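Q: What does the assembled structure look like for these inputs?
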Amino acid sequence: DVKVTQSSRYLVKRTGEKVFLECVQDMDHENMFWYRQDPGLGLRLIYFSYDVKMKEKGDIPEGYSVSREKKERFSLILESASTNQTSMYLCASSFGTGQGAMVDEQFFGPGTRLTVL
Amino acid sequence: QKEVEQNSGPLSVPEGAIASLNCTYSDRGSQSFFWYRQYSGKSPELIMFIYSNGDKEDGRFTAQLNKASQYVSLLIRDSQPSDSATYLCAVNRDDKIIFGKGTRLHILP
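A:
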C-alpha cells in the first residue's frame, strides 16, 4: 500500500512565523503535490514537483515555497504565516514518469490542519 | 465558466437506491477523469477513473463519460450508509489535475 505521511495533523502558529509542513511518501513516486482545502473553495493546487529539485507553481503559489531535496520528501514552506493561510493542507503523490505522466491517480496524506493566529 | 463544476448538494438518497453524481468540465482537451471519495475529516481517496467515452463499471460503481457534452457522472448502485461522503470530480488540464468542489452525498437509512 502506498503511504503518504505528513509531519503534523494539527498545527497552531502565529502571524509572521516561518512554517514548515513536511510530506513523505514511501512508494518511490515521481510526482508530489501540495494542496489546500477550504470550505466552499475545494482543493486548490499550491505547488507540485515531478522530479527531485524540480518544482512548478500551481494555481495559488503566492505566500508559499517548496523544497524537494530527496525523491520521497516534499516540504511546503510558509515564509511568513498570515491568518488567510489558515487551512487544511494536503500532500499527495503519484507514480508518473516525467512531466507528461502526471495525470494519474494521486494518493493523499492525512492532512495538516494549520491555524494561524 | 468554472473548470470543473459539481452540484454541492447535499444529495439525499434512500438506502438501496441508485445515487447519481454529475460533473461538467470546460476544457475540451481533457483526457483523464477521476472520482474521489472524501469522508468527513479524512483525505480524498480514488474510487474510479475513466479515459474513454462510455461506461466503466467497478462493483457497485459506474463512471460514465461523454466528451461531446463534456460531462462525467458517477452512479452508485444499492447505496449504503457507508457511501455517505463528499465525492470529488477531477479532470486534467494539461499536466495538472483540477478538482471540483465536491458533492455531499447522504444515504438515508
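Chain B touches chain A through 19 residues (CB under 8 Å).
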